[in-house]
Amino acid sequence: MNVLVLGAGGLAGSAIAKELRANGHTVSGTCRTASPGYDSDPAMLRFDLDEPQSIVPLLEKTRPDTVISCLRGDFDRQLEAHGLLADFMHRHHGTLIYLSTANVFDGDLSRPHYEGDPLCSDSTYGQFKIACEQLLQDRLGRSCIILRPPEIWGRSCPRLRALMQSCQGGDPLRTYENMFVNYATDVQIARWTAFILEHDLRGVFHVGTQDTSGYTEFLDRLSGRLGLPRPGYDVTQNDTQAYQAVLPGRKDIPAALQLSVNDVLTYLSEGFAARHPEKIRPAVN
To answer: Long-range CB contacts (< 8 A, 24+ apart) of 164-173?
Structure first.
């Protein structure tokens, strides 16, 4: 299969491209500017969202069977680019996988949400993602696949770096009391994407842990697993229990691809230990 990953220089996009190549697919990707490791890679192509129309010659050049969109940037330009992308894939009978967000439900924090729940967002970001989902589904129908991850973590992600810096006396982390969330890893999203393509699954998927954790509790547990001091926090209080969680409800994703919060903590701490053995001290939790 010939696959184009838009935003392949990012956390999720780079993991998806790596996984699909390992599974034998022909994969090209895009990034906005030349980056270390990408500037000499002929499969990494430049796409600047400041010029949304430039996506058309890029698609003509690569002729993908499947496009996976992990684009970030200006919302209006993203919508324009995705409209052009959807029209191209419709004409050429291709498939589009769109990386959305848990924020499509941030207007109802009373409970976790599953794939079939009605969308409801109070945030500009969530409303944009809803608009993009609807645009793509309207134009592509079953050829549009939606992935909705919660907060994404990886072994070298910005969130992990911010946690380490805060533990060492840097800027406090924003956290939310009485807020319960679930989590995804870059590798989990990549493996789900490969499975969905190889088994020709369709529709909407919530890609994340099957359970939830308190927001502050997760950061405390992770810093403990890494053998680091407790980070500093900038706390937002919630008077009532709230959820920012998109739980997986699909029965066609095997148990081997499902994760728990503890699995995410283990994945992150094992990667940290491999890279920084000198910083590890016995964890307290």
So the answer is: 164/226, 164/228, 166/231, 166/232, 167/223, 167/226, 167/228, 167/229, 167/230, 167/231, 168/228, 168/229, 169/232, 170/232, 171/232, 172/231, 172/232, 172/233, 172/234, 173/219, 173/231, 173/232, 173/233, 173/234
Distances (CA, A) of 176 to 10, 82, 211, 214, 253: 26, 33, 18, 8, 31
Query: With contact defined as beta carbons under 8 Å apart, do 103 and 71 qualify?
Result: no
Q: What is the pLDDT of residue 37?
A: 54
CATH architecture of 2-151+183-206: 3-Layer(aba) Sandwich (3.40)
What is the C-alpha to C-alpha distance for residues 12 and 135, in angstroms, rounded to an integer? Answer: 22
Per-residue CA distances from 97 to 3, 73, 106, 137, 197 (Å): 10, 18, 22, 11, 9
pLDDT < 70 positions in the chain: 33-40, 273-285
Query: What is the token pair recorded at 134?
Result: 């609807």
What is the structure's pLDDT at 70?
97
- Partners of residue 243 on adjacent β-strands: 180
Where do the domains of the chain lie?
2-151+183-206, 155-181+212-244+255-279
Residues 218-247 have pLDDT tens digits of 999 999 999 999 999 999 988 899 999 999
Instruction: Decide if 264 contacts 272 (C-beta within 8 A).
Output: no
- Predicted confidence at residue 148, as pLDDT, reads 98
